[in-house]
């Protein structure tokens, strides 16, 4: 008799299988088969329907060949949509067992324990340093209904045994032909090999065995069918006593990769606890389909994996599932909430959580990013800008800002505006005005970057090339929503090691930061005041000009008339605009400032003394704050405490020194009024201030010797209190030795160095460095136990050293393990090193806590004279390795000290290919940092390995190419020994790295070899050199790759199948997009398979209006194309993210669908804009008169007005209410109106706006939404 036909709503149990064998077993367990039902549209599943006991069951199987968590999730998702009454689910099939607990033919059921929910996705997580893998997220537990049934079943198994064998026999009786292998036969042998023993395939047999073997190929095939491990060593089998089948309850691990390695299997079990089974589908279901997982064990997840046990394992799993359903009460199942409703609730909750999490994550990341940027550089020159701007008379300088030269520079891209002028002409004021004007011209445009530097003569020592690059980088990064991942990782790596970014790393990071903006501006004021020591000024300008050549950056530079500066800045795109004091400007300022006021007069002798003291204090010093200055002026020789009563007021100083010094209001620093003042004092110093340095030294040391400074502060709080209370202490600790010079033997200095407690307190102030605002414990991360001899060695005080050697332990180590010799060697004080060696009491090979010797320190910092002295002792270990595995040669090579490298190589005692803990050789380090002279020296060593790979697989050529060191690349290529296509562990070649970082000259060199693989793909994302160049905005490299040897223009990566055009559009690089489109081969309509977004969608999503215009100009893009994740169009993305300029451009196209709903939430562009608070976007969309202002989304049933009210966006509510057709009382799926949503979430202003709207139903009695808020002062939220 035919089974009664049922409807989709009649099925309450969902049964999911992965393999056809599992589906066969499941079908065989049905008590009754039901006829198929009509197939629903867009449903790719096929179903088997039937019943077990009183339960109506629907069985679905993954498509043929599909495996993994994603496929399983897709099947389950479609199943619950087609069969809306499904309450619980079963995931039934085969899996790999984890010995020794589990054996072949056993059953494993997913049951939670104290730590895990029954199933864990082993490959879901994050790779961390040291090869560790941290699993993230958690999966749902099986439904309580099924767990209760398992508990009852386990009890009955103990008392009566299992019914699995009975169900298998019944199935065989019903289907004798198709279930022959369900029962366990003698042919199934349970063989477990030792974990360390790998499977031997037929081709692995040696030739002798092949020759001695007998029998035909056919016979061998038969044997192989019976025994898949016929060639394996039987001595490697683990001996175990036979036992019957068992059912285990516990942990199952699931993932997207097949595990055929016993070592991986055992490591997973060790990491996660007692793992019973490994499979590939369950993790895809647990979060989307409330179910329990049942697995029959068919192998041991090792290299001996085979199919012999699969059908039996599938059958016993299905039989157990049937037995389990016998313990589940039908009415209890019907009482459960349908899975579809559960998923809808989850979707709503998850959406809400995601929104909150996104906000919190953004805030957390922003906080962490700010800490990292504070660590990188705290000097943003904002205080100087504010202070200078305050001194700018607003009616002056208009001639400059309105000049054609400035306006053309401002409007065009990639230009240089060079503004020379005589001293006092107002160059700094004009630079400040220009910075203000740029900032005002683009007040809210996140695609415009601005950074600036004020060079100041008194800060020459600190304004190094690295300082300037770090400041510019920090300013550009602060303008972005979040730090790029690669930049954050780079910062974290250095911060944890306590090291700073190298010049090359800063340059690369700055170049990348600039490239992320559509336009970037850099202002450099007073370049003439930048030091020329060590070619600093030339280096800074060269670096910035190199970055400009790769980007669209605009440069504004001011300086006095200097031929070398003008020469460096003169380019084809340079405009010169001289700054000359204008008569009308001077008249305007004078008229506004001419006024009379009373001045308090002071004694002439006192005034002369104060002026003299200020000038002496100022010579050679960094800028002092007003508080530091006042304490400095109050110091008297031979005193033991500061007399604050002797501190003059800052007003007194300003009055007496009128015209000489000023106080910056923002930075609170005291400085000479102008560079010309400094020049004047420089000329007259020898006559006026012959003893200035000695007086400053005496003041500093006297201050440090005050009795209050009695040893280390034990906490950060105490330390910071000391610095605040005694503001001159930090300067005195850092700078006294610089002023000491030949006076280091003076008695006041010697007395200070003999006082151990004062020395320790001073060294804490000297060495403590707070790297970021939240850097806790920084004041304690210093070497303790320092002596006066340590300080004398650090500062190179040769006059004080001999006397201290008779008092202090000459070879005493501080808490960091450094001796005075180590300090002197590190700081390069050869005379002190010589004095210490002459005592014959020092250990020349002493190692500090980092394993570094004095020779290692001297080599690192390039102190050739010290290296010579140490080598001459004939006692040093020339090739000693520190804790990082680096030798002195490695350090010298890394830091580019060619003279030291030469000295070390000449000893013939160094291993030129010595590898450190990272696998880096000296050549590798020299290549990374571009030290061409060092590379030359190392290449002359015959034994040098030019292709040596580090732990990440990078060669010296790879490092040099990545960092753009063309000269080093050339040297390496000339050896004719380098492997130009060598791939590192990420699959990146030298060309990939050079292209990624925009090093066009290096790319050109590599292409000229005619040996490079131009389309080589990495193993991380499958990206080619062209993809990397396009992603990072390097248009010159893109053109080279397209022209020199045409690269595959539409090569898709393996991450999200993005082409170079897609990547360039996503990141917002219009020049690259234009170059790719002009090549006439790039596909502007291509979708990536990960998100399914077209280049237009990416550009619209991220607000890149110029890219959008370029793509629309091709007339080939689908303006309404939807992505595959959210189903949003470009217009929807632009509205969602508030990109109004993009929105305007898209709305100008006739084809755009203004009411397109996404496929996940069912929201229109208007709904997204309202939800995210973009009032200007909402207004623009309504003005088109083409949008449905009352459209409801699919998940919450909320209109744009509901969303704006729910989120508290009062301005958006006002805009929507102005649309005549808006429904103010529209209800969502939970019955909430816009007013009730605003009330519920505490948004008073929104409630006021809604209640005051004249279209509201005045007859409707509304409760006062603020009754629970009392007077409104408590619990009130405003937006």
Automatic annotation (TrEMBL):
Intervals holding ANK repeats: 816-838, 850-872, 884-906, 918-940, 952-974, 986-1008, 1021-1043, 1056-1078, 1091-1112, 1126-1148, 1161-1183, 1196-1218
UniProt-listed Pfam families: Ank (PF00023), Ank_2 (PF12796), Ank_4 (PF13637), NPHP3_N (PF24883), PNP_UDP_1 (PF01048)
Region annotation Disordered: where it falls in the sequence: 202-227, 1257-1279
Gene3D superfamilies: Ankyrin repeat-containing domain, Nucleoside phosphorylase domain, P-loop containing nucleotide triphosphate hydrolases
GO molecular function terms attached to this record: catalytic activity
Key word Ribonucleoprotein present: no
Domain Nucleoside phosphorylase as annotated: residue spans: 219-324
Full protein name: Nucleoside phosphorylase domain-containing protein
Residue spans of biased composition, Acidic residues class: 207-225
Key words, A-Z: ANK repeat, Repeat
PROSITE patterns linked: ANK_REP_REGION (PS50297), ANK_REPEAT (PS50088)
């Amino acid at each position: 008799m035919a089974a009664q036909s049922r409807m989709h709503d009649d099925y309450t149990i969902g049964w999911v299988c992965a393999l056809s064998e599992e589906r066969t077993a499941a079908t065989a367990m049905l008590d009754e088969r039901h006829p198929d039902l009509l197939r629903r549209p867009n449903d790719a599943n096929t179903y088997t329907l039937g019943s077990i006991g009183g339960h109506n069951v629907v069985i679905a199987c993954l498509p043929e060949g599909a495996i993994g968590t994603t496929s399983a999730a897709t099947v389950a998702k479609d199943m619950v949509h087609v069969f809306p009454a499904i309450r619980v689910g079963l995931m039934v099939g085969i899996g790999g067992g984890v010995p020794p607990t589990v054996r072949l033919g056993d059953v494993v059921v997913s049951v939670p324990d104290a730590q895990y929910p029954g199933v864990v996705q082993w490959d879901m997580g994050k790779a961390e340093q040291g090869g560790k893998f941290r699993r993230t997220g958690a999966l749902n537990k099986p439904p309580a209904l099924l767990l209760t049934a398992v508990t009852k079943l386990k009890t009955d198994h103990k008392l009566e045994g299992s019914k699995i064998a009975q169900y298998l026999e019944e199935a065989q009786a019903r289907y004798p032909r198709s279930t022959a292998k369900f029962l366990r036969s003698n042919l199934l042998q349970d063989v477990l090999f030792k974990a360390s023993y790998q499977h031997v395939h037929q081709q692995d047999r040696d030739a002798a065995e092949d020759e001695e073997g007998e029998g035909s190929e056919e016979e061998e095939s038969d044997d192989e069918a019976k025994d898949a491990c016929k060639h394996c060593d039987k001595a490697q089998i683990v001996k175990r006593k036979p036992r019957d089948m068992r059912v285990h309850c516990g942990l199952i691990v699931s993932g997207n990769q097949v595990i055929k390695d016993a070592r991986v299997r055992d490591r997973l079990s060790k990491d996660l606890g007692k793992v019973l089974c490994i499979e590939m589908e369950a993790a895809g279901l647990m979060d989307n389909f409330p179910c329990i997982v049942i697995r029959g064990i068919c192998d041991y997840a090792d290299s001996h994996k085979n199919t012999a046990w699969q059908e039996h394992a599938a059958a016993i799993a299905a039989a157990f599932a049937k037995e389990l359903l016998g313990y589940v009460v039908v009415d209890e199942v019907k009482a459960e909430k349908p899975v579809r409703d559960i998923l809808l609730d989850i979707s709503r909750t998850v959406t809400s959580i995601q929104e909150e999490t996104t906000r919190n994550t953004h805030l957390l990341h922003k906080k962490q990013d700010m800490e990292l940027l504070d660590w990188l550089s705290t000097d943003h020159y904002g205080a100087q800008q504010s202070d200078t701007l305050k001194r700018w008379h607003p009616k002056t300088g208009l001639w400059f800002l309105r000049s054609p030269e400035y306006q053309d520079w401002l409007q065009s891209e990639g230009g240089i505006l060079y503004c020379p002028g005589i001293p006092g002409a107002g160059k700094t004021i004009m630079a400040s005005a220009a910075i203000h004007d740029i900032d005002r011209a683009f007040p809210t445009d996140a695609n415009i970057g601005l950074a600036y530097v004020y060079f100041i003569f008194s800060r020459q020592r600190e304004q190094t090339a690295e300082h300037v690059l770090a400041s510019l980088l920090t300013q550009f990064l602060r303008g972005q929503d979040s730090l790029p991942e690669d930049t954050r990782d780079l910062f974290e790596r250095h911060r944890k090691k306590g090291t700073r970014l190298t010049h090359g790393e800063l340059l690369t990071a700055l170049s990348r930061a600039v490239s992320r903006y559509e336009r970037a501006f850099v202002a450099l004021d007073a370049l003439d005041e930048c030091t020329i020591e060590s070619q600093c000024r030339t280096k800074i300008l060269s670096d910035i000009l190199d970055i400009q050549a790769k980007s669209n950056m605009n440069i504004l530079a001011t300086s006095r008339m200097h031929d070398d500066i003008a020469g460096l800045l003169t380019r084809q795109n340079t405009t010169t605009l001289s700054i000359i004091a204008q008569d009308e400007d001077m008249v305007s300022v004078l008229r506004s400032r001419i006024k009379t006021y009373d001045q308090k007069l002071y004694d002439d002798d006192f005034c002369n003394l104060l002026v003299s003291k200020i000038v002496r204090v100022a010579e050679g010093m960094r800028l002092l704050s007003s508080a530091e200055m006042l304490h400095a002026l109050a110091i008297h020789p031979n005193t033991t405490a500061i007399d604050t009563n002797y501190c003059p007021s800052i007003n007194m100083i300003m009055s007496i020194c009128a015209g000489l010094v000023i106080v910056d209001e923002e930075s609170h620093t005291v400085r000479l009024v102008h560079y010309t003042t400094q020049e004047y004092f420089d000329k007259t110093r020898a006559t006026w201030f012959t003893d200035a340095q000695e007086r400053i030294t005496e003041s500093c040391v006297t201050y440090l010797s005050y009795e209050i400074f009695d040893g280390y502060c034990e906490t950060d709080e105490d330390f910071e209190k000391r610095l605040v209370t005694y503001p001159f202490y930090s300067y005195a600790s850092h700078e006294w030795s610089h002023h000491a010079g030949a006076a280091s033997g003076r008695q006041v200095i010697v007395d200070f160095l003999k006082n151990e407690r004062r020395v320790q307190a001073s060294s804490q102030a000297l060495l403590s460095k707070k790297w970021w605002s939240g850097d806790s414990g920084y004041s304690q991360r210093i070497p303790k136990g320092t002596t006066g001899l340590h300080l004398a060695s650090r500062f190179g005080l040769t006059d004080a050293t001999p006397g201290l050697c008779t008092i202090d332990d000459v070879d005493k180590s501080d808490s960091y393990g450094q001796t005075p010799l180590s300090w002197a060697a590190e700081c390069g004080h050869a005379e002190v090193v010589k004095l210490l060696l002459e005592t014959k009491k020092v250990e020349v090979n002493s190692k500090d806590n980092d394993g570094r010797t004095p020779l290692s320190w001297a080599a690192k910092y390039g102190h050739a004279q010290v290296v010579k002295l140490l080598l001459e002792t004939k006692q040093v270990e020339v090739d000693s390795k520190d804790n990082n595995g680096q030798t002195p040669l490695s350090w010298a090579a890394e830091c580019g000290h060619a003279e030291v490298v030469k000295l070390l190589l000449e000893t013939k005692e160094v291993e030129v290919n010595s590898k450190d803990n990272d696998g880096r050789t000296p050549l590798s380090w020299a290549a990374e940092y571009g030290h061409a002279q060092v590379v030359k020296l190392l290449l002359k060593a015959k034994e040098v390995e030019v292709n040596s790979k580090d732990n990440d697989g990078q060669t010296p050529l790879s490092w040099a190419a990545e960092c753009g060191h063309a000269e080093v690349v050339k040297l390496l290529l000339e050896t004719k020994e380098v492997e130009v296509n060598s791939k590192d562990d990420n699959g990146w070649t030298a060309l990939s790295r050079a292209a990624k970082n925009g090093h066009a000259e290096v790319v050109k060199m590599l292409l000229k070899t005619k040996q490079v693989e131009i389309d080589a793909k990495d193993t991380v994302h499958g990206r080619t050199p062209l993809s990397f160049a396009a992603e990072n905005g390097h248009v010159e490299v893109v053109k080279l790759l397209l022209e020199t040897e045409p690269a595959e223009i539409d090569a898709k990566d393996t991450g999200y199948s993005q082409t170079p055009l897609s990547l360039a559009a996503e990141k917002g690089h219009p020049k690259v997009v234009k170059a790719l489109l002009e090549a006439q081969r790039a596909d502007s309509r291509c979708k990536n398979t990960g998100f399914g977004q077209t280049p237009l969608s990416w550009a619209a999503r991220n607000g890149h209006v110029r890219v959008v215009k370029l793509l629309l100009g091709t007339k080939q893009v689908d303006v309404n194309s939807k992505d595959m994740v959210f189903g949003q169009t470009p217009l929807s993305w632009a509205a969602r993210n508030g990109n109004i300029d993009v929105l305007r451009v898209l709305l100008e196209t006739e084809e755009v669908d203004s009411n397109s709903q996404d496929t996940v939430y069912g929201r229109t562009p208007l709904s997204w804009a309202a939800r995210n608070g973009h009032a200007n976007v909402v207004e623009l969309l309504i003005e088109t008169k083409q949008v449905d202002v009352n459209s409801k989304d699919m998940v919450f049933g909320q209109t744009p007005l509901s969303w704006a009210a729910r989120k508290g966006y009062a301005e958006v509510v006002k805009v929507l209410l102005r649309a005549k057709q808006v429904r103010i009382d529209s209800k969502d799926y939970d019955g909430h109106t816009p007013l009730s949503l605003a009330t519920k979430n505490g948004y008073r202003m929104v409630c006021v706006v809604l209640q005051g709207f004249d279209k509201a139903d005045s007859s409707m009695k509304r409760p006062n939404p603020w009754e629970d808020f009392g007077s409104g002062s408590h619990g009130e939220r405003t937006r």
